[in-house]
Structures are given as structure tokens and as C-alpha cells.
Amino acid sequence: MQKIVVLIFLSVAIAVGIFLGFSVHNKSASLTQQTLKTVISSQPLPSPTPAVGIPETFSIPSLHVTAQIEQVAMDSQGRMDVPKNVFDVAWYDLGVKPGEKGSAVIDGHYDTQTGAPAVFYDIAQLKSGDTIIITDNNGKSYTFTVTLNTNYPYDQLPLQKIFATNDRPRLNLITCSGVWDKQQHNYSTRDVVYAEEE
């Protein structure tokens, strides 16, 4: 009987070693006693959390704003790029997706080349408690609640706070504001809206 128990244990250990061998070869994990306990435990493991999809649509109900979401990275000057269409918004795809833990960042144009309102023309009116809804390519919606609406001089943005706060799922919006400088072709400030997932 003791010999049978030993053989069964060895069989399980070999199976576990084959199953987790890639981790050992990649040096990303080791086959510890705790790993063995997890694999051979009779308790069911929790289901994996469904992956967050690529954000596709954006809405701010209180402002009657709906828009498509473009994906952008950095421009030639190392800044977050902007959407090509002035009525779209842009998600910074080098960061986290809306709904993931961390700061997802979306920007949008304040106005058009003629001075007409663009997609984020009215976001300075957002107040704490207003909601922003993102829907991804899996059809799942994520609702964020505004916690703060503020502005900064264009060259004094708190980049760590906007792009790298990672305690919970967050969504931060950015657009131009302030006074237009004709020589610099730039607005003097940036409006930033901070929101957290409900």
C-alpha cells in the first residue's frame, strides 16, 4: 500500500513538472512546494478575470457627447498624440486600457481650425459625480465617475498623476484651454478631468 501511494505521488509530481516546465525554463517561476499544493488541491481555482478589450466608444451623458475612440501613441516631440478627427477622442495605447487597474488617458480637441467647438469643447463644465462611459470591442461598458476637474499651465502638467496613478481603474481626460498664442500655435493651459471606475 505504501509503495502505491509513493508511485501515485511521483506520477503527480512528474505531471506537474511537465505542465510547469516552461516557467522553469523561462526562469519566471520555480516549482515550489506551494505550487504543488495549488496544482493538486481538490479546491476549484477561481475563474480568470475576463480580459479588458480595446476601447471603441466614449460618452459623457451630462454633456450629450458621444464619440469614437482612436488609438494613439506619442507624436514626433514625445508628447501624447491627438485624434485625427476633431470629433473623435484618442486613447493613449502605450498605457492601460479603460477598466484596467491604473490611469487610462484619453484626449480630445477643444476646437477646430476655424474656432468651432470640437469634441471636448465643454468638458470644463464637468463636475464631481458626472459619469463617463467607455465601451470596448467586447461590448462591455465601464462607467467612471468624475472626482476632479482642474487645469494646469501647458508646460506644468503633473505627468505622474495623469499617466501613472495605479491604485485602481482610473480614467483621465485632457484637452486644451486658456488663451491661444498665435506665435506659439498653442493654448496656455490644459484642462484635466480625473475620474474613477464605479
Can you tell me about this structure?
- The chain has 198 residues and is of the alpha+beta class.
- The chain folds into two domains: 2-40; 55-197, Sortase, Chain: A.
- It has four helices and eight strands.
- It has helices at residues 2-19, 21-25, 33-40, 159-163, and strands spanning 55-60, 65-72, 89-92, 102-108, 131-136, 141-153, 169-181, 186-197.
- Strands 1-2-3-4-7-8-6-5 form an eight-stranded mixed β-barrel.
- β5 and β6 (141-153) form a beta hairpin.
- It is globular.
- The N and C termini lie far apart (57 Å).
Q: How would you classify the quaternary structure? A: single chain
CATH superfamily of the largest domain: Sortase
CATH topology of the largest domain: Sortase, Chain: A
Mean pLDDT, all residues: 81
* Name of the level-1 CATH class of the largest domain: Mainly Beta
The global form is: globular
- Can you tell me the residue ranges where pLDDT is under 50 for at least 5 consecutive residues? 1-47
